[in-house]
């Protein structure tokens, strides 16, 4: 009786201590998050780091769940001129759950590290605007997670609530680019008549539409799309040129993409392990090299989000397959985090590569929607609202040209290291100004002549 | 002759031309719809003005009569009529204050955050956007305790308003209510500073009345020991010196808060303390009502604290035999230590007073549970740090037992956890996580501003910012209303 009583009370005291101390150092708790828990987790990160985070939603899923995004940057809520925009999207296949969890852990990790004074993270957050969308298909996830037992079906919960596979639902711009390659035409921003193509297209799922609007609204520079079912970093193009099931389909930025994909895989010990056996006995991973693969070489995917990003906007996106098992058991989540943490952070840093700067007119005003082209790469980019641009490039010597309608094109030579990004600004002279100049020159000459000849 | 003919011909041609051109100028009476409407419109414009006014009036009357049939639902007309009445009443009723009662924007103020370049922030669902707009109107008609109308729409007198505010403060035990309302009114320019001061006095008075009234009621209900009476007496005093244990932590806590407050108005202090004392009173009374024999311990035992733990008392009573006195003493010491610890946490703002209270209540319930499940396991002694190391060292025999106990209790704790269904939506869990997150933020801010050499971070600005953000998140469906309220509550208690 004596012991027992004291037990109770000291135990109670211990409870007081434990609950008061809380989780030390802000540990991450490695468990699956359903929709409510996901929301709670993001709100908690925001509450812990309100000066560098903001939660917003890009729309609702078919069943009405918010498509939540957590942005992390030094000045959340606004695009700062010259600050590159980055995004991670996960769980577009609802039953590929690892990516979803990794992004939640990443949010918690970045917030904790920021507050603990981690210089790398602090610099990264101050110099980048990072958007994290843990789940593009929350409806599918709920379906997948509701399955009883440990083993989850390969397909249940993959598509959205309407049965649409979101990664086949995007407008197929690959077809168009292949035609343009043969017959001539634009090599970038191929989504013409956007309003009509998107808003009036009844075949697009609400999640797809929301993401397309998001891509059009924010001048994303670099992105990655998190999946499961294998372990590799996949880069454009996903759809084969000839329509065959396997064929290496290089994009104009093949070299750049390989460099970006490798920057993820090298820090993931499983992904970059040359001795890694395939996930399933009969899998064909012949196209995997150093943990990366071209999309078409692996298998053809039409209507995917990755290529859509590249062909409709300035954003370079790769697809990350992060686990052989699409929905592994909860106790493996910690391992997946350990495997991917460094890769996830390092990949964000890749946004600070290549060449970047501003395109302005002679009065110093930024010229938006100016074209940035690189000699030898048949893919142009455009400047954002303030005239700012970011052109990701692998190391080398390049000629970069800035042009805009009504202005004279300027070409600059630049030598680009691996990192950081090289700053190159352009001042464009408008045609009117040039004409004005020439006229003045002519007047001066005339005046001189007349003075000399006295008439 | 020929020339004449030609001349005539020319003339005739000219004439014909004129006629023709004139004919084309004549309005052709085609029966197109456009012409008809034009035709009608002209008629309307020509109607006598009086007629048109009469028509408009009859329409209005019809609308009004329709609306008056549903008096509780729509207060449009009432409000419009009442506006004038109200201002007259106001100026009549109280010469000091003229609280205009146009529209009091309630919880939802205009969003401060401007729409920036990207439309992620402006992107809302159509319904959300619309209901936001209407929300401003609906707020007028709901029974909002902070609105200046009674439920049935009749305008409030000034006294009513003062009473209402005092009631609200009393209920919520939150002086912030007053600040909130006054700041809103000041911001809107509806009252001047001096009027605000006057309002303060009046609210303070009303609150004081409320408290004494309730205290008297509570005193009458009391049948128990001196403790209650002592408290009753203290209510009437306004001195700080107070042997009662529950008052000091809260008072100290709020005093700390008041240091941060810019306003040092004495009357406000009084209101504050009164509110606290009263809260202590009501809390005590709740406990009292719950227990049957809770207050049988005499104050000489120095156990005033512990009378709020009826189950614990039952335990103690069962230890009345001589051989158990030491055990009894130990238990009492432990319990007091626990309470002190909780008080400390409250004082330093780690938890809110409410949370401290609920924690201790839970503790008592836990003791009740344990008295039911009697256990007698003895375990090996792992590492153990008590909440207050001194006590352990003083009692050697408790140290060994303590080790076992902690292990014991942790096992119990774990099993309780498993028993609960994984309802992650339960409120306490959520608010704990949020509380934890907010605490980390505050800690970091404190550390950060110290490092930067700045003065203390601006807590009130942070609070305002967070309130705004919470509101905008609720609007967009990112957090639920109750969660938002929890967060605001946590921030307001800092």
Question: Would you give an account of this structure?
Answer:
The complex is a heterodimer of chains A (455) and B (494). Chain A is 36% helix and 20% strand. With 455 residues, chain A is α/β, with parallel strands linked by helices. In chain A, helix 2 (35-48) packs parallel to helix 3 (98-115), helix 3 crosses helix 12 and helix 9 packs across helix 12. The longest helix of chain A has 23 residues, at 431-453. Residues 13-26 of chain A have low confidence and may be disordered. Chain B is mostly helical. Helix content of chain B is 68%, strand content 0%. Chain B contains 19 helices and no strands. Chain B has helices at residues 2-25, 33-46, 49-68, 76-93, 126-141, 158-172, 176-188, 193-221, 226-236, 247-260, 266-290, 310-317, 325-347, 353-372, 389-394, 396-419, 427-452, 459-476, 481-492. In chain B, helix 6 (158-172) packs across helix 7 (176-188), helix 13 (325-347) packs antiparallel against helix 14 and helix 18 packs antiparallel against helix 19 (481-492). Chain B is elongated, with a radius of gyration of 37 Å. The N and C termini of chain B lie far apart (117 Å). The relative contact order of chain B is 0.05. Classes of the chains: A alpha/beta (455), B mainly alpha (494). Chains A and B meet through helix 1, helix 2, strand 1, strand 2 and helix 8 of A and helix 13, helix 14, helix 16, helix 17 and helix 18 of B.
